[in-house]
Amino acid sequence: MKARVTVMLKDGVLDPQGEAVRHALGTLGFSGVEAVRQGKVIEIDLAASDRAAAEAEVRRMCERLLANTVIEKYAVEIV
Amino acid sequence: MKAAVITFPGSNCDRDLAVAFAAAGAEVARVWHKEDALPAGTDVVGIPGGFSYGDYLRCGAIAAQSPVMAAVRAHAARGGYVLGICNGFQVLTESGLLPGALMRNASLKFICKRVGLRVATADSAYTAGWQAGQRISLPVAHHDGNFAIDAEGLARLKGEDRIAFTYVDNPNGSVADIAGILSDNRRVLGLMPHPERAIDPAQGGTDGAMLFRALMGAFVPV
To answer: Which CATH number describes the domain made up of A2-78?
Structure first.
């Protein structure tokens, strides 16, 4: 079983990297880009066979290590 | 005073920090991150600057899970002193020993220069050698020094006089110009500037030496 974790800065936390990407897209001529937020995707291969248990385990991983919940939010997807 | 300086893979200010403690008269032990205990009688733990684990995942996030950090947490819980500089500050926030987080500099640039600081409080063993409001100069060298904390956390830091240093001219976007903060018992200090790189005239300034001298004079053995 595979889990995909998406970690993003929380809404309202300024994302200077996303802002730089937005600016660069404008420079390339892509108009109408109103906002860019940059985050990271972490894929995890799991031995578990129970989806609910796997999701709960990955959520604990997010709380302990994968996300810094002071500034980041995360989403877990079992795929 | 017995100091223990931790080395993680990728630490690069560990020797400088050991030299700074020794220059102030401390007995210094060097401790590898795989150790699960600190040397007996450790008064202060130094967590140095550098790029522990290549800054993978987030700066300081992997180092915060090292075996030695469990011992550092226990040391802090006993009322022991912990000084985290630059990457060491990031390790302390990732460990939960200090609140907030250090984000990418607002300019997105790595900043390496000498900056003006204000000593925001003299009420700690680290800052007792200065007057509150005194202006000093220390080097900074970081890519992720942009201190972030929510409004409630910031109000708490201010209300409890736990902001140790502020930037005169904010280089990285830190909220409230914060360069360093103290724990609630005032014995854990994290700061982005490098006092250990300003202890000898050959380094272009000696303002950092006061932090180590003050700590020598003011620390209370646990």
So the answer is: 3.30.1280.10
Nearest CA in chain A to B100: A70
Residue ranges of the domains in chain A? Answer: 2-78
Residue B96 CA to residue B103 CA, distance in Å, equals 16
What is the DSSP code string of B34-51? T-SSPPTT--EEEE--B-
Contact A70 B58 (CB under 8 A): no
Q: Does the active-site annotation cover B86?
A: yes
Is the CB of A68 less than 8 angstroms away from the CB of B106? no
Instruction: Quote the Cα angle for B94-B95-B96, to 5°.
Output: 90
Paired tokens of A8: 């993003």
Annotated catalytic residue: which of B13, B59, B86, B143?
B86
Which class in CATH covers the domain with range B2-218? alpha beta
Q: Sketch the domain layout of chain B as residue ranges.
A: 2-218
- Candidate from B94, B104, B150 with C-beta closest to A68: B94
Answer yes or no: are the C-beta atoms of B65 and A65 closer than 8 Å: yes
Of B31, B45, B47, B144, residue with least CA distance to B88: B47
The answer to whether B93 contacts A70, with C-beta atoms less than 8 Å apart, is yes
Q: List chain B pLDDT tens, one digit each, 222 residues.
A: 999 999 999 999 999 999 999 999 999 999 999 999 999 999 999 999 999 999 999 999 999 999 999 999 999 999 999 999 999 999 999 999 999 999 999 999 999 999 999 999 999 999 999 999 999 999 999 999 999 999 999 999 999 999 999 999 999 999 999 999 999 999 999 999 999 999 999 999 999 999 999 999 999 998
pLDDT tens digits for B33-59?
999 999 999 999 999 999 999 999 999
ipTM of the complex: 0.85
> Which residues of A make CB contacts under 8 Å with B?
13-14, 16-17, 20, 65-66, 68, 70-71
Residue numbers in B near A17 (CB within 8 A) = 104, 108
Answer whether B174 touches A (CB < 8 Å): no
